[in-house]
Amino acid sequence: MRLARHLIFAWAAFVLALMPLRAATEAASATENVLKVRVLANSAGRDFTKSRQYLVLDLVLQKSGRPYDLAMSGLIARPYGEPQQLIEQPGVVNVMFHPAEALLENQLRPIYYPIFGGRQSYWQPLVPLGSASKFSHVQSVEDLRAFTVLQGRGWPTIPSLERNGIQVVTGNNRNLLNMIVAGRADFYLQTRVFASPEQIARLNARGLERVEHFALYIPLIHIFYVAPDNDDLYDAIVAGFDAAIADGSLEQLHADEGFSLENVNPDLRIFDMGKPNLSDAARRALEEYGGAWGRAQLQVE
Fold first, then answer.
1. Element (H, E) at 61
2. Of the residues 63, 66, 117, 123, which has the fewest C-beta atoms closer than 10 A?
């Protein structure tokens, strides 16, 4: 009897000794299963955690069902060097957002879901406050050839504008609004077709207004990219997009951010700028997840 009691006490002590080790092992295992997501910023001086790209990424990671840890990486994109940053520093940065373009699509693994749900294909002119009347006669793309348009350097909209005979002035992304207020070009194109009254009021406060009667359709798709061998993060983002599209939460996020069809001028004319400057894969993604959404409800001429 005494021996049995000693054996029971010894076994209990052994089990108690193992408990911290088991808890530590389980905690380590749980930590290993957390998806660490670090985002590459595409410019300095901006809090990207408040951007819609970041909010969409957060949503799709939630919908993926995976535990995750999302934060900015602290790194800024090097022009034309982004693939190396994601491939060579996977522990520091592993995802970026950018318009679909050949260099990135060929060197990284593109995730072909439009971050903005097709809204980035509709471009409305912004002009200095009080000057919209200069465009009252514009009824076609041809009429715009008398004006100059301001765009950011290297923007994917530029080839379509130049193909249509519109002179483009370029500038640093951070100075574009100040440049148009200062009259450096006749108008500036932004994707403000879906902007809320509050957003328009903020533009007015900066000395800008929209030209209300027309916009341009220039197909563009912003997507996420990961390193070619990052299957784990790729699968999580794809699964999250599928879930967020299916349950309507992605569309609701855009609406909550003020980008809704309800904000569109019902009399808006939209001029088609022709063949998109997109790869076949990017064009198919826009048609499947974004282009049909807009073109079915907005009259593109």
1. helix 52-64
2. 66
Closest CA to 124 of 269, 289, 222: 269
- From CA 296, how far away is CA 198, in angstroms rounded? 26
The rounded distance, in Å, linking the Cα atoms of 203 and 208 is 5
Pair 184, 214: CB distance under 8 Å:
no
For residue 41 the two structure tokens come to 């910023």
Between 230 and 300, residue with greater pLDDT: 230
Give the Cα separation of 9 and 286 in Å (integer): 68
Using DSSP bridges, classify how beta strands 222-226 and 96-99 pair: parallel, antiparallel or unpaired: antiparallel
Closest CA to 206 of 149, 126, 125: 126
Q: Which two tokens stand for residue 59?
A: 């949503």
Instruction: Check if the beta carbon of residue 75 is closer than 8 Å to that of residue 85.
Output: yes
Neighbours of 201 (CB within 10 A): 10
CA distance 167 to 159: 11
What's residue 18's pLDDT?
Answer: 56
Phi, psi of 96, deg, nearest 5: -145, 160
Q: Which two tokens stand for residue 65?
A: 């069902």
Q: Rounded to two decimals, what is the model's pTM?
A: 0.81
Angle, CA of 212, 215 and 217, to the nearest 5°: 165
| Residue 130 pLDDT greater than 50, yes or no | yes
Q: Which of 55-69, 109-123, 242-256 has the highest mean pLDDT?
A: 55-69
Distance CA 256, CA 185 (A): 33
